[in-house]
Amino acid sequence: MKNPALHQEPRYEPAKVIRLKQDTSLLEWLQSSGRLIPREEKEVVARSGDEDVELEGLIDEDGYDFDDDDTSFNSADTLED
Q: Coil, strand or helix: which one is 61?
């Protein structure tokens, strides 16, 4: 299979340095080559206030209750080798 982008280099010799072209940035290259695809515009859905009211009913305003083993860490609880 012939692929000019691939070639073999000797294993124990230093690799050749590829010079960077400072002419254009990556973004400019993508735009000029037609490879930059614009995003599709999404419809913005307006949220109603009803959703916020429903969520407020589910949220506990006192905070979260933690179990005793969640809030403290004892060195005796660690695994020994």
A: coil
The length of the chain in residues reads 81
User: In whole angstroms, what is the distance from residue 78 CA to residue 81 CA?
Assistant: 10
- Supply the pTM of this predicted model: 0.26
Q: Are 18 and 7 in contact (CB under 8 A)?
A: no
- How far apart are the C-alpha atoms of 24 and 10, rounded to whole Å? 32
Residue with tokens 């010799």: 13
In tens, the pLDDT along 30-81 reads 888 888 888 888 887 766 666 666 767 777 666 666 665 655 555 555 555 4
User: What is the Cβ-side half-sphere exposure of residue 35, based on CA atoms within 13 angstroms?
Assistant: 6
Tokens in use for 72?
């403290």
First to last CA, the chain: 55
Q: For residue 80, which phi and psi values (nearest 5 degrees)?
A: -95, 150
